[in-house]
Automatic annotation (TrEMBL):
Name the record gives this protein: DNA-binding protein
Annotated PIN domain residues: 1-101
Pfam families linked: PIN_9 (PF18477)
InterPro entries: PIN-like_dom_sf, PIN_9, PIN_dom
Keywords, sorted A to Z: DNA-binding
GO molecular function: DNA binding
Superkingdom, natural source: Archaea
């Protein structure tokens, strides 16, 4: 199964020390996709984020993205994630509350960080 990784999903390892790829594999996901707009957000955050911690987490996310399939997409990251998830049936790993709502109401499987130490498939009622 395939999963699209959002910007904040790729920053989880730098922020919380969670091996997101191991966790995604535990959930049955083997193909990791990163959209070009997500890379652009990470590049921007790696230079301009308010905190040093966020800049470092974004840099770690960029390094991790190198091991993923990069998918060309235009527009903003959230819209591109929703569009590709709907077209391909891929799940999305994000912690963005608003994006989780949008995805869930459209029937997209959402994966998120739970208790700062593991990933789980979100239940629609959580939003």
């Amino acid at each position: 199964m395939k999963v699209l990784l959002d910007t904040n999903g790729l920053m989880v390892p730098g922020e919380f020390g969670v091996d997101v790829f191991e966790e995604l594999e535990r959930l049955g996901y083997r193909r990791f996709l990163v959209l070009r707009p997500v890379l652009r957000e990470l590049e921007s955050l790696s230079r301009l984020a308010d905190s040093r911690r966020d800049r470092i987490a974004a840099r770690i996310g960029l390094l991790l993205a190198e091991g993923c399939e990069i998918v060309e997409a235009s527009g903003g990251a959230d819209e591109a994630l929703l569009d590709l998830a709907l077209k391909t049936g891929a799940a999305v790993f994000t912690n963005d509350k608003e994006l989780k709502k949008k995805l869930s109401t459209r029937g997209v499987t959402v994966i998120h960080l739970r208790q700062r130490r593991r990933l789980e498939i979100a239940n629609r009622k959580e939003f």
